[in-house]
Design brief:
There is one protein chain. The chain has one helix at residues 50-63; strands at residues 14-20, 27-32, 37-41, 67-71, 77-82. By secondary structure, the chain is α+β, with helices and mostly antiparallel strands. The protein has a single domain, classed as Conserved Hypothetical Protein Mth637, Chain: A. The protein has a five-stranded mixed β-sheet with strand order 2-3-1-5-4, covered by helices on one side. The N and C termini lie far apart (27 Å).
Length: 83
């Protein structure tokens, strides 16, 4: 697994993400070459949209852009768009 950063993504691009909910801390863990997706640990439960809200809050903070979940609202594999 390689280390990656979301800072290199430009507005209008999409980011494939694999979410691991219920972690101790929300952080970008790395990049899975096999699945071609970023690994994101999320400090929220995957119920009542809590994990998705935490993802948006975290990505907004680290990228300075407005992220939205383009696909995968109920899946661990998501596509994030930066607007």
């Amino acid at each position: 697994m390689k280390k990656h950063s979301f800072n290199s993504f430009k507005q209008g691009k999409t980011i494939p993400v694999i979410v691991k909910p219920n972690a101790k801390k929300t952080l970008l863990k790395g990049y899975d070459e096999e699945r071609k997706a970023h690994i994101l640990e999320v400090a929220a439960l995957p119920e009542n949209n809590k994990a998705n809200q935490e993802i948006i809050k975290y990505l907004s903070k680290i990228t300075g852009k407005k992220p939205r979940i383009k696909s995968g609202l109920t899946s661990k594999k998501k596509i994030i768009a930066l607007d």
